[in-house]
Design goal:
This protein has 5 helices and no strands. It is mainly α and 152 residues long. The structure holds protoporphyrin IX containing FE (HEM).
């Protein structure tokens, strides 16, 4: 396997873990643990265990994503410039995907964060997690479109 292929594989595996756990938190963890008041300790234990995973996962996604942009994305964008009619621009779609992905990662981070702002966001966790799911679906749809764009 080539460098970009390995990077893509790692990127996709980590992306699906982060995306899947947002869904799991929204539909299972949060409704169960917010239904009773005595669950603060369990909530804190879950956050403590999950926090390093989110931080490491987000770092891996950004690092592999930037590498893919340079190794795979730039050549596609350059090739697209040589075509006359070629649909939406690679750079524009990548920019949208990047902003949406940062939004989704911010929400994943807010679910485990310690600052006052993160605590406030968690008070309406269900709303934020559902927004996170919408963002992740859009990110995956755009990513698949980018992946299928021709490179030569
Ligand atoms: C919630 C976070 C993210 C998710 C769910 C996600 C998901 C994906 C998926 C599913 C692919 C498609 C791989 C394929 O089918 O070949 C992909 C590719 C890619 N991702 Fe991400 N990603 C995320 C974050 C990021 C970030 C933060 C960056 C940039 C720093 C990034 C940059 C890229 C690039 C450049 C590609 C390759 C596109 C191409 O083939 O032209 N991703 N991503």
């Amino acid at each position: 396997m080539s460098g970009p292929e390995i990077s893509t594989l790692i990127h996709v595996i980590v992306a699906f873990f982060i995306a899947g756990t947002l869904l799991f938190q929204w539909r299972a963890v949060h409704p169960v643990l917010s239904s009773s008041d005595g669950d603060d300790q369990i909530r804190e234990q879950i956050r403590g265990r999950w926090r390093p995973m989110v931080h490491v996962g987000a770092t891996i996604l950004v690092v592999t994503g930037l590498y893919q942009l340079m190794a795979v994305g730039m050549p596609k964008a350059d090739f697209q410039d040589t075509l006359e009619a070629s649909g939406p621009a690679y750079h524009m779609l990548f920019g949208i995907k990047f902003l949406l992905a940062i939004g989704a990662l911010f929400i994943a981070g807010a679910m485990v964060g310690r600052s006052g702002l993160m605590v406030k966001i968690r008070q309406s966790a269900s709303k934020w997690l559902s927004l996170g799911i919408v963002l992740v679906i859009a990110v995956i749809a755009i990513s698949r479109y980018l992946a299928q764009m021709p490179s030569a």
